Each structure stands twice: as C-alpha cells, then as structure tokens.
C-alpha cells in the first residue's frame, strides 16, 4: 500500500459476516482510504445461524436476519455482482459485469455454499432444497408452513440435524438418511454421536444410518415424491433437504495463482494468502469459511472452520494486518468455538474434536444427557464438548490453550472425581460420511501444475 498505511485502496470480496467485520475493523484501525465491498447476493450482510433455527421454526422471516453494523464502514457496496477473477500482477479484481477494481490490498472472504445434490435433474425437482442462503431458508420455511406429510433430510451433520429438529418441533414427520454410523459423528466422534442418535429417535425422527440415497424420485410433473436408499428401501416424502456439507467458493480464483482448492485458500497465521508455490503474498488476505490456516495448538494442521466465531476473529486479525507494518502484525490463534441447539439440547464445542485419539466423560453422563466430554491427542487436551453444561467450557478452553495433559486433572466446579477412564474418540474418515466435517484437518494438496514449471535462467 503506497505511503501511509492508513490510506490506499482495499477491496473485500464477500459481503457476509467476515467481510463486514473486516470492513468495520479497518475503519476502527484508522484506515481512511477507499473501501469496496463485493457480494454476489443482492442483499446486505446477514446472519446465517438463525436460518436453520428461528427461520425454519417460523419464528422469524428470512429477510430479518441482517447483521447489525458496529459502525458504518463507509464502503462502496457492489452487491448482486460476483467476482470472476484476480490479476495479482495488475492488482485488480474482475467482476461479472465486466468492471475491474484496482486494489492495494485484497481480502477474500467468499465463504461457502451448500453442496448440491449430484444429479442435477433430481436436484431440480420441486420440493428439493438446500440451506445456506437467506433465499433458500425463506423458500424452505414457506414449504414447511404448508404442512408437508414427511420431510427427508439427507446428511446428519449439524445443519441436517438442526433441520430435522425444526421439523419435529413443528410436528412434521422427518426421515434422516446418513451414510455414517450416527449423526454428528464426523464432528464429535462416536461417543457423543451415540447420544445424538438416541435424541433424534427419542424425538420421533426416522433415523437411517449406514445408508445412502441412491435416487430422488418425481411424479412425472417435476414434483419430488420420495427417494430410493442403498438398502433397497424407499422413503415417501414431499420435501427433501440436501444437507451434504459445504463447497468453498474458490472457483473464481482458478487462474489467480493462489493456493485455492476444494478445501479453501491456504494462508499463514497472519491471514496472508499463499500462492500455488507455497510463497506467502503480502497484499492478498483471507478470512472466514473459505480460509485454511495453520494452528500451533493443533500440530500446525491446516484448519478449515465453518464457525461463526472464527469468521469474526479471523476477519479482525486480517483487517489489522492489512493496515499494519510487519512488526505490528498479529497471528490468528483463537481456539475454535462452536454451538448448536437441537432436540432440546445445547451443544457447545471448544478446540478441534476431530484432532483427537481418545475422549473421556469428565462431567455428567450420557444417561443424564448433561455432560462434558474432553478430547485428547497424544497425551494432551485438544477439545471439549458440553451438552447442557456450557458454563464449564471456559475451564476446558484454558486446558487447551495451556496444552494440559490428557486425561485432565480434577478442576471444573461440579466435577467430583478425576477422569481416568478414557475411550477411543472414534472419529471416522470423512469420506465415509454424508455430511462434511465442520472442521477439516488438511495438508495442502500439491497443485499438479507445479510439475510443469521450469526455472528461468
């Protein structure tokens, strides 16, 4: 950025939570230059967690989840127009309307979209939905308002489970089909997945595990009527929600030379994007669901997080670093946190449960449906998940941050004895699940184009 770091041109691609919080932080940090916000949706930034909760329950219209602004970011808003590419040499962002935007610093916060049903014709049947955007939530809520006889949910990750919970709360019959052994198993491992499965069935969910949906069926007039499963059974339903995880919005960066792939855009702990050769850039930054970043508390694994809190915290770090000289830049080292409400349970997570080899029930019990499960990897605490016991989470967060030994010693307020009976965490291979993990532990996959690059003399 030429001259004073408080001046210049910044472009943020992605007008959602991470993009908005970054824009606000830039102004709070004293940035006075031009700020352009690009978003492919026509609406101002809005909150996504309520879409699978209050909106589907009919408690809030889909168009009322706008994110409150901490301050006016004084930005030039380009909404309803997608970015189509980046020229890192000319330092320009290309837009779908033919315009290009010059930048001194660029923040990529394009997030994710719902993974569609792989068969396009089946996925376009009337009654087949995905849930990621406000428009999608509005259409699905409208269909649930009409009182379908049965809803089929494909995938039992957090989104699929929350959708199933909303259906049962509305009194709608619901079938959940999951390729893995239990709901949430890809995010929380086998112990808590057993509780999740029991809760779904206790609330009247027709839960089918270890099966895949092989085909969606229509009535000949384009309306969804049911699905065939891999075990030979058929589910008759009038609504289908495809909850197969998220796709990171990186396709527009295919010719950018950045380290962008199916698992996101790789960046360093300071949110600076890597190029495809593993060299860090100094003018392109990444934040939110589309990022992949190393975390020293988790073996420097590259983390991909679909978490609200991570989007906020990483956006603030990225914004700070975009307008700060090198010695004043700071790393994004926040411990991941996540929460979900479903079937009357409040589930909260801190750390990375999938980065584990053993777990211990440190407080409460599965039978009581109120408990704290602590995860460990190679003898130290790496995560904790509470069910209706959120006040204990700060204690376990401290254990993670201090690399405390696993199993943990006594210490939480209402724990009577030391936890010493550990069991395998039973985290499955994500390839065997219908739902994608909300935390992906990844190493960067080398780009095949690297093999054809010759050094210049």
Could you state the CATH homologous superfamily of the largest domain?
A: FAD/NAD(P)-binding domain
Helix percent band: 10-25%
**How does the overall form come out from the CA principal axes?**
globular
Multimeric state of these chains? single chain
What's the N-to-C terminus distance? 31 Å
Largest sheet: 6 strands, mixed
Instruction: From the 3D structure, determine the CATH topology of the largest domain.
Output: FAD/NAD(P)-binding domain
**CATH class (first level) name of the largest domain:** Alpha Beta
Radius of gyration, taken over Cα atoms and rounded to an integer in Å: 23 Å
Q: Which band does the percent of strand residues land in?
A: 25-35%
Number of strands: 30
Uncertain residue segments: 442-457
- Side by side, the strands of the main sheet go 3-2-1-7-21-20
Q: Structural class of the secondary elements?
A: alpha/beta
Which CATH architecture of the largest domain is right?
A: 3-Layer(bba) Sandwich
Number of helices: 7
Query: What is the number of independent domains?
Result: 3
What's the average pLDDT? 90
Protein name: Pyridine nucleotide-disulfide oxidoreductase
Keywords: FAD, Flavoprotein, Oxidoreductase
Cofactor: FAD
GO molecular function: oxidoreductase activity, acting on NAD(P)H
């Amino acid at each position: 950025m030429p001259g004073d770091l408080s001046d210049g041109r910044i472009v943020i691609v992605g007008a959602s939570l991470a993009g908005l919080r970054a824009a606000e932080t830039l102004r709070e940090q004293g940035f006075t230059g031009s700020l352009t916000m690009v978003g492919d949706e026509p609406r101002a930034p809005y909150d996504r967690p309520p879409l699978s909760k209050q909106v589907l329950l009919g408690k809030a219209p889909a168009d009322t989840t706008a994110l409150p602004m901490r301050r006016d970011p004084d930005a030039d808003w380009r909404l309803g127009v997608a970015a189509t590419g980046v020229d890192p040499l000319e330092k320009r962002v290309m837009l779908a309307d033919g315009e290009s935007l010059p930048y001194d610093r660029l923040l990529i916060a394009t997030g994710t979209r719902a993974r569609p049903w792989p068969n396009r014709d089946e996925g376009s049947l009337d009654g087949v939905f995905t849930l990621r955007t406000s428009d999608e939530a509005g259409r699905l809520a409208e269909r649930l308002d009409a009182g379908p006889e049965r809803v089929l949910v494909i995938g039992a990750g957090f989104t699929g489970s929350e959708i199933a919970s909303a259906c049962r709360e509305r009194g709608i019959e619901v079938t959940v089909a999951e390729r893995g052994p239990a709901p949430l198993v890809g995010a929380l491992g086998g112990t808590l997945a057993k509780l999740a499965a029991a809760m779904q069935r206790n609330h009247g969910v027709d839960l089918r595990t270890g099966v895949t949906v092989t085909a969606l069926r229509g009535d000949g007039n384009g309306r969804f009527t049911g699905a065939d499963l891999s075990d030979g059974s058929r589910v008759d339903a009038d609504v289908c929600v495809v909850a197969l995880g998220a796709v990171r919005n990186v396709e527009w960066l295919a010719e950018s030379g950045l380290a962008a792939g199916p698992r996101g855009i790789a960046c360093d702990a300071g949110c600076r994007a890597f190029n495809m050769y593993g060299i860090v850039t100094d003018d392109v930054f990444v934040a939110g669901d589309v990022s992949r970043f190393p975390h020293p508390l988790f073996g420097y694994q590259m983390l991909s997080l679909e978490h609200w809190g991570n989007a906020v915290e990483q956006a603030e770090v990225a914004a700070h670093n975009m307008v700060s000289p090198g010695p004043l830049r700071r790393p994004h080292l926040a411990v991941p946190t996540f929460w979900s409400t479903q079937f009357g349970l409040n589930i909260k997570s801190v750390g990375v449960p999938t980065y584990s080899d053993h777990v211990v029930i440190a407080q409460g019990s599965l039978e009581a449906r109120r408990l704290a499960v602590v995860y460990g990897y190679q003898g130290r605490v790496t995560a904790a998940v509470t069910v209706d016991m959120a006040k204990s989470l700060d204690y376990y967060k401290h254990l993670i941050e201090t690399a405390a030994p696993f199993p943990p010693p006594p210490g939480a307020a209402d724990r009577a004895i030391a936890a010493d009976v550990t069991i395998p965490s039973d985290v499955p291979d994500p390839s065997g699940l219908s739902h994608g993990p909300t935390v992906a532990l990844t190493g960067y996959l080398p780009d095949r184009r690297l093999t054809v690059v010759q050094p210049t003399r």
